[in-house]
């Protein structure tokens, strides 16, 4: 059992949310849905993490990333951990964007 399963966040409710997200057809629909779902700060945090992942994927230094994104190197390190030791979600999306 992985730690995600032990924590219990993967359940019928989260599956329902992810299925709903998969119904979105374009960027405009995503913008509308996520703006209704999340606070502006939550959107900014998600955007920041994804920007960090993009920069890490380009092998930029943690310090350079932290300065550009205006965040701490701790946040960069946290994203790097999930990029390199997570479940592969970042890598999957980054590889698809690279095509």
Explain the overall architecture.
The protein starts with a helix and ends with a helix. It contains 7 helices and no strands. The chain has helices spanning 3-7, 12-22, 27-37, 40-57, 62-69, 73-85, 89-98. The protein is mostly helical. Helix 4 crosses helix 6 and helix 5 (62-69) crosses helix 6.
Derived structural class: mainly alpha
Helix content: over 70%
CATH architecture of the largest domain: Orthogonal Bundle
What is the CATH T-level topology of the largest domain? Trp Operon Repressor, Chain A
Low-confidence stretches: none
In DSSP terms (H or I, runs of 4 or more residues), the helix count works out at 7
Order of helices and strands: HHHHHHH
Blueprint (SSEs and pairs):
Blueprint lengths: L2 H5 L4 H11 L4 H11 L2 H18 L4 H8 L3 H13 L3 H10 L1
Helix pairs in contact: 4-5, 4-6, 5-6
């Amino acid at each position: 059992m992985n730690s995600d399963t032990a924590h219990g966040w993967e359940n019928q409710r989260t599956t329902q949310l992810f299925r709903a997200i998969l119904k979105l057809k374009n960027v405009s629909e995503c913008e509308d849905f996520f703006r209704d779902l999340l606070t502006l700060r939550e959107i900014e945090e998600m955007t920041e993490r994804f920007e960090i992942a993009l920069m890490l994927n380009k092998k930029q230094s943690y310090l350079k990333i932290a300065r550009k994104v205006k965040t701490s190197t701790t946040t960069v390190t946290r994203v790097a951990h999930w990029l390199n030791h997570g479940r592969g979600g970042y890598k999957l999306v980054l590889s698809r964007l690279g095509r």
